Amino acid sequence: FATAKQQGKGSYAAGMASSPCGNSNFDSGLEIKTRSVEQTLIPLVSQITTLINHKDKPKKSERTLAAIHRVGQAVSVAVGRFVTVGEAIATENQELKDEMGQACFEARRAGDAIAQLTDVGSALPSQSDGRVTVFSDRTGMVKAARLLLSSVTKVLVLADRIVIKQIITSRNKVLVTLDHLERVSTFQEFVQIFSQFGNEMVEFAHLTGDRQNDLKDEKKKARMAAARAVLEKCTMMLLTASKTCLRHPDCESARINKDAVFHRMRCALEQVIEIVTEARSCGENKILPASIYNGIKDFKVGVECLRENLYSLSPQSMGSQLEALVERTEDFTDSAYTSHEQRQAILGLCQLARQDTQQLVNAWVEAQSLHAKEATEDMEVAILKTCQSISDLRRELHKVAVIRASDLLKVHGEQLPLRALKAAGAEGNLEAMAEYSRKLTEQKEQLVETCRLLCHVSGTEPLEITCVHAEETFHVIGPQIISAAQTLALHPSSKIAKENLEVFCEAWESQLCDMALLLREINDIFEGRRGTFFHPLFPQKHSANLKTAKAVKLDAEEQTSMAKLGLELRLLSSDVDTEVEKWEEQEHDIVRQSQSLASMAYNMYLFTRGEGLLKTTLDLFHQAEVCASISANLLFAPPSVLFFLLFYRSCKCICCFIKHKT
C-alpha cells in the first residue's frame, strides 16, 4: 500500500511540475500535519493559482490560450491518476471506503470542471482585435479550485491514516513479541523469539523514522526522536538483561534489572503511539515543564505590548507573572550545588526586576489616569529598564546552568564511579560495590538536576524536550547500572553478567556525550546561531571502488533487507566489544582494528535507521568496503575472533546490494 501511495503522489506531482511552485492559501477545513502532504499539494496550488490569475484577463493570444488549455488538461489528467490510487486505497481499507470514495468523487468532479473551464472549445473570437475571449467565470474557477484542493487534501489526509495504522500494527506486533520474550524460560526459546523481535523492531524503526522526518511540528519530532532513542538503546539492554536473568534465574537484582528495561520499552512504544495518534495522556504535562526561558519570553512580550495598548493586561497580572517567574528560579537558588556568589547574583537580579517592574506599574497607572492613548515617556523608560533587568536575569541563569553542566561533564568524563563499580563487581566485593553505588547515585542526582536547569534556559521547545529526555535517562539508567553491578558482584565469574553491566555503562557514557552536544546547542541558541555539528567522515580509503557505485534510492522492501543487515552488524559489534576485552594487550593491532570495525558497523547500523554520519548509499558503500577490508585482515586472527567472517559476509552483502541497484 505504501508503494502505491508513493507512486500516486509521484505521478500526481509529475503532472503538476511544469510551473514553479507558488504560495496560495486555501481553506480545506483539514489540518495538514505532515510535510509529505504539504509538498504534494504545492504544485497543485501553483497550477490553480496560475489558472485563477489568468481569468482576470478575458482576452488572450492563441499562445496564452494554448498554455492555459495545457495546464487545465494536465490538472485533470493528474487528478484522474491520483483518484485512481485513492480508490484503490479505499478498496483495500474498508474502514475508509465511504470517506475516501466521497473525497475521490469530489476531486474527479472538480478536475473535470477545471478541464471544462479551460477548454479551447469554449473560447470565442473577438470582433475587434482577433484575440480570443476565454470563458471568464472566475467565480466558477475559484469554486472548482477550492473543491479540488479540499478533496485532494482529504484524500491525502485519509491516506495518512493508513500510515498511522501501519505504525500501530507494527507496535502491536512488537508488544506481543515483547510479552513472549519476558516469559521465556530457556536460552533456545529466547534466541528464537529475539530474532523475530529484532526483525519487528527494524520494521518499527523504519516506520517511525519516516514519520519523524515527515512531521511538521518540531515538538512532536523531538518527542518522537526521544522515544526512538530509548527503544534503540533498550534493545541491546533487553538482550543482555534477559540473558543474565536466564543464566541466574534466582537472582533478584537481575530480575529487577530486566523488569526495568521491559517497562521502559513499553513506555517508549506508548509514547510513539501518543504522538502519531495525537492522543492526550496524563503524562503530557511532564514532557514540557514550565521553563524560565518561556516565562521570560512571555513576560517581555506583555511588557512591550504596553507601547501599543495600555489596557492589554492589568498591573496585577503583570505582577503575578513576574512572581511566578521568580519562583521558578528557586531551582537554581535552592540547589546545594549552586555557589554562594551565584545564588546572591540571581537573588539580586530578581530583586532588581521587581523594582523595575514596580516603577513600570506606577508609570502605567499614572498614564491610565491621564487617559493616555499610548505609552508616556516615563513608561517608555520603565519598559526599557524592565526588559533589560529581566534579560540580565536570563543571562545570569544561563551562565550558571552552562558552568554547572560543563564542570560536571569534565568531572564525570573520567567515569571513575563506573570503573570502580565494574572492578568491585568483578571481584565480588559487595561492600565496595555498595560504596560506589552511593557515589554513582550522587552523580546521577547532580546530572538530573543539571538537566533540569538546562531545560530552563534551553531556548527552544524541542531542546526543552531533549533536556527532559536526558534527565529521565540519567534518572532511569543510574539504578539499572547499580542492579547490574549487584548481579555481577553476586556472580563475579559470570561473563554474561559482566557484559550486561558493560552495556548499561555504555548507555550512561553515551548519554553524557549527548549531554555535551546538547550543551553546545543551547549555547549556540543563546548566542544567536543555530548549532551545527560537523563530524568528519571516515578516512577516504579504497576510493577506486567508488567508481563502481553511486547513490541510489531504496524501496520499502530493499530498506527492510538493508535494515536486517544493519541489525546483524549492530549485534556483531556488541560481540566484538566483549571479545576485545579478553585481550591482555589492549594496544595490540587486532584490538585497535576490532574497535574500529565495531565503530564502523555501528554507524552502518545507524544509517539503516536514517541516522548517524553516513548520509547516502554511496557513503554506506564506501564504509562497507572499508569494513570488509578490515574484516578480511582479521580472518586469520585467533579462533576467539573468527566471527569476523560474519562481518565480512554482511559488509560484502551491502556492497553487492548497492552495486546491483546501480
Give your account of this protein's structure.
This protein has 662 residues and is mainly alpha-helical. It has helices spanning 2-16, 35-54, 62-92, 97-117, 138-183, 187-214, 218-247, 252-277, 284-287, 292-305, 315-328, 330-333, 340-369, 377-412, 416-427, 430-456, 461-490, 495-526, 556-580, 589-608, 617-633, 644-661, and strands at 59-60, 124-125, 132-133. Helix 3 runs parallel beside helix 5 (138-183).
List keywords for this structure.
disordered N terminus; 3 strands; 22 helices; 3-stranded antiparallel β-sheet; flat; 662 residues; CTNNAL1; mainly alpha; cadherin binding; cytoplasm
In short:
One of its GO terms (cellular component) is cytoplasm. This protein is an all-alpha fold and 662 residues long. It has helices at 2-16, 35-54, 62-92, 97-117, 138-183, 187-214, 218-247, 252-277, 284-287, 292-305, 315-328, 330-333, 340-369, 377-412, 416-427, 430-456, 461-490, 495-526, 556-580, 589-608, 617-633, 644-661, and strands spanning 59-60, 124-125, 132-133.
Helical content band? over 70%
Q: How many strands, which pairing sense, and closed or not: the largest β-sheet?
A: 3 strands, antiparallel
* C-alpha geometry: flat
- Write down the secondary-structure element order: HHEHHEEHHHHHHHHHHHHHHHHHH
Structure class:
mainly alpha
Low-confidence blocks of residues: 1-29, 123-135, 282-287, 531-550, 638-643
Overall pLDDT: 78
How many strands in all?
Answer: 3
The number of helical segments is: 22
Spatial order of the strands forming the largest sheet: 1-3-2
Ends apart, CA distance between termini: 25 Å
Strand content: under 5%
Rg from alpha-carbon coordinates: 31 Å
